[in-house]
Amino acid sequence: MSNLFPTYSRYDIKPVEGKGSYITDDKGDKYLDYVAGIAVLNLGHCPANVEAAVIDQVKTLWHMSNLFPSDVQDSVASQLTGAAHFTRVFFCNSGAEANEAAIKLARKFTGRSKFITFQDSFHGRTFATMSATGQDKIKKGFGEMLGTFLHIPYNQPEILKDYIDEDTAGVIVETVQGEGGIIPASEEFLKEIENLCRQTGAAFIVDDVQAGIGRTGKAFSFQHYDIKPDLLTLAKGLGNGLPVGALLGDERFIDAFGSGSHGSTFGGNYIAMAAANEVLHTIFQEDFLREVTEKGEYFRARLKEALKDSEQVVDIRGKGLLIGIEINIPIADMVKKVHAQKLLVLSAGTNVLRILPPLNTTYEELDEAVEKIRTAFASDTASISAE
Ligand SMILES: Cc1ncc(COP(=O)(O)O)c(C=O)c1O
Questions:
Q1: CB-based burial label for 374 (10 Å; 0-12, 13-18, 19+)
Q2: What pLDDT score was predicted for residue 214?
Q3: Gap between the Cα atoms of 217 and 214, Å rounded
């Protein structure tokens, strides 16, 4: 019997080792891992350069309090701010903590407490970020939520003006809803949020926890659009498996986040920062990001070709290597069928197969994944016709 709380329903595959895009389980079976720790392992398992940086740091200095200066934090912060219009960074340990920091900062900066978020969004599991999340199933049984979050329909620019007003502290939006089902936002929608935030003084907050750090083929996913968010939250891919979260903002916010206003014991930990530093050196390169875009286009085109006769497929979509296949059959069964082909994928929303390859996956691996998915869908058809 396990002594763990059963907060996760786990797949029946126990990984014991990983290298690149593959893991091996305790039975010795090898799987192509296109879950990648849920958009965390953007450079795959145990990438040599990150491993070397982490080992070097482990031998030098593990941890100091944030009461002391840290060159490695400064280096990661400078890479993050160098990739966009931001100038300031706060480090924490997770996506929820990054959003929590954004919520606190927007409240303090504006002196307001109302937030607008979107139906089917996901922002985390702390009390504030759970309240921000637009999915009832996440909140079930936890009693009254924070009353300051209003969830409105996603991708509907025409209704925004009815909700964003002079009482709004911030609007939190994912440019691609990840957990909600791989749903990209329209340019018009995001631009209208930005407009209304500018008009009312609300903070325009992009949650890039899942779609950031190169996942969509840009350093940050909002860079696909002609917008400039006030605050940006990051985590997942930033540490390639070591826990790092970050909130990015600019000079306007320094008084609200002055000394003693917010903090985290582990935020910006040396080992996690050593990993993040190396991750960003690799990912924030034009050639690398272009390849993510090209691989994403190649993979989606190959999937569309392979599944064109499949009656179970409703849509194949995504940006870069954040990919969803919407289907019209039970999602859990389909995930299992893909796993049976030794390809790890997961679900998103109620009926989307979510595929998150490491960003440095090869074209051969993408081809291998297409064949495995084709076989899994064919096996589903075979089982339907045998019934
Ligand atoms: C968009 C988004 N925001 C926030 C989170 C929460 O991140 P974490 O699990 O690191 O707290 C997630 C996690 O899936 C996410 O996808």
A1: middle
A2: 98
A3: 5
Low-confidence ranges of the chain (pLDDT < 50): 386-387
Q: What is the pLDDT of residue 380?
A: 73
C-alpha to C-alpha distances, 25 to 34, 200, 254, 387, nearest whole angstrom: 15, 53, 47, 32
CA distances from 308 to 50, 333, 363 (A): 39, 20, 20
Residue 384: per-residue pLDDT: 52
- What's the confidence (pLDDT) of residue 387? 47
Q: Determine the distance separating the centroid of ligand 1 and the alpha carbon of 378, expressed in angstroms.
A: 33
What's the confidence (pLDDT) of residue 222?
Answer: 98
The predicted pLDDT at position 383 comes to 59
- CA distances, 28 to each of 31, 46, 47, 335, 373 (Å): 10, 18, 21, 21, 22
According to CATH, the superfamily of the domain at 15-33+286-386 is Aspartate Aminotransferase, domain 1 (3.90.1150.10)
Over residues 190-229, the pLDDT tens digits come to 999 999 999 999 999 999 999 999 999 999 999 999 999 9
CA nearest ligand 1 atom 16, residue? 210
Task: For ligand 1, say whether the CB of 178 is within 6 Å of any of its atoms.
Answer: yes
Q: Read off φ and ψ for residue 334, nearest 5 degrees.
A: -70, -40
Judge: domain 48-283, CATH 1.10.10.10. Answer: no
Beta strand segments in the chain, E: 15-19, 22-25, 30-33, 88-92, 114-118, 149-152, 168-173, 176-177, 183-184, 203-207, 231-234, 245-249, 313-319, 322-327, 343-344, 346-348, 352-355
Neighbours of 141 (CB within 10 A): 4
The reply to whether ligand 1 has any atom less than 6 angstroms from the CB of 122 is: yes
Q: Does residue 124 line the site of ligand 1, with CB under 6 A?
A: yes
Measured CA to CA, the distance from residue 163 to residue 383 in angstroms comes to 48
Task: Give alpha helix (H) positions in 111-206.
Answer: 127-132, 136-139, 187-200
Largest CA distance in the chain: 67
- The residues spanned by each domain of the chain are 15-33+286-386, 48-283
pLDDT attached to residue 19: 98
